[in-house]
Amino acid sequence: MSDEASQICVSDELPYPFLYHSAPSGVISLTVTEQPSTTLNVSWQPPLSTCKATEYVVVYTLTNKDQCEETNEATEVLVEETQKSVMLTNLLPFSNFTISVRGRNIAGNGPEEMVVWTTDGFGKEL
Prior knowledge:
The chain is an all-beta fold. The chain has strands at residues 8-11, 18-21, 28-34, 40-45, 55-65, 69-80, 85-88, 96-105, 108-109, 113-118.
């Protein structure tokens, strides 16, 4: 089956079957876990829809450095469809981040799920 064919979804809401391309729905159970103080593990579950994501787009944006300097520095990470987590490393301690995850396929981007996180600076061990 081709990649394009795997992205065709069937709607049973109409009186007849209708094939169309559709972006995936939003990921569920977005979770952030701090490892050492400058590393975050971001994990999620795939969308509950017939239109699957072929990859995930994770964007983390530094919004406040050291709790005193506002900024807007975004970094995008592409994650394969088989992965449901990513480690964000070498982050600044005592800083605020907005982290978003969305699925994407041939039809486009699904809705993003977002969380705001503040890193500590204490170098916690696992």
